């Protein structure tokens, strides 16, 4: 691991790796170098952070060292940890991710909270998840609302196969997948609720994103290649068709002036109940619209 040749054969205990990587990652400007290597080690050894501390003296095997070497190299290139380990956590559940899907964000958990506060967990709503990606929203709702029926859509099979994998791993049977492009295709059913975390970053802001995001996450999940409002406009046009009267559209919104703009689009189209809800950071994060 970037060590002089004569050290190739040395043995590495967990603690040695932590000490080495801590310095190495620090020299590469990582903000939490120790935490970074701990995450990788936790995944490599399949253990919790506490377990890792109990295993400090344990020697790593050759293949473990090989894997770790590749992982650290990828991380140095700023590939997100979640793509390296192939998974992340969302609303208390594990989700597989790969480069075809956006990495679920903690902020998006506010969307789940809003849905549960709005419709509860006991009914049997028909839910549409537009642009499901990893499936984090659709799968979570299908799990939290056992009698719900969820239709989750996205534009290609590679994306849908990630969401399907996450459905299987949580043993769910109340979710269906449809290949559909919301901007161009028609949706033939009507739902009680439509949820969506659309690509809302304006094209002009893409170059300013962190390398981790800009160079690794799928741009199709990040930007609409326009002003970040394309999906919301389409929703205002399609609302009455895809959601029954009295039902809801609940979607994520971006930062800065974006939430206000999205809010205005719905308000101007005559929707009567249009509300912005803040996330735990105090940022407007979720737009909740009643379809009238
Ligand atoms: N629904 C997925 C998520 O919330 C994907 C969203 C997207 O690709 N923009 O993470």
List the strand order in the largest sheet: 5-4-3-6-7-9-8
Order of helices and strands: HHHHHEEHEHEHEEHHHEHEE
Count of β-strands = 9
Helix-residue proportion: 40-55%
Radius of gyration: 22 Å
Question: Ranges with pLDDT <50 over ≥5 residues?
Answer: none
**Oligomerization category of the chains in this entry:** single chain
Query: Which small-molecule species are bound to the chains here?
Result: glutamine
Question: What is the overall silhouette?
Answer: elongated
Number of helices: 12
The termini sit apart by 61 Å
Verbal overview:
The protein is elongated. Helices cover 40% and strands 18% of the residues. Strand 4 (149-154), helix 8 and strand 5 (175-179) form a beta-alpha-beta unit. It is built from twelve helices and nine strands. The chain starts with 13 loop residues before the first helix and ends with a strand. The longest helix has 15 residues, at 62-76. It is of the alpha/beta class and 292 residues long. It has a seven-stranded mixed sheet with strand order 5-4-3-6-7-9-8, sandwiched between helices. Strands 1-2 form a two-stranded antiparallel sheet. The chain has helices at residues 14-27, 33-45, 49-54, 62-76, 81-85, 109-119, 136-144, 157-169, 211-214, 219-222, 230-242, 258-268; strands at residues 87-90, 93-96, 126-130, 149-154, 175-179, 191-196, 243-252, 273-278, 284-290. Bound molecules: glutamine (GLN). Glutamine (GLN) is lined by residues 102, 104, 108, 131-134, 136-137, 197-199, 221.
Describe the structure using short key phrases.
binds glutamine, 292 residues, 12 helices, seven-stranded mixed beta sheet, 18% strand, 9 strands, 40% helix, single chain, elongated, two-stranded antiparallel ribbon, alpha/beta
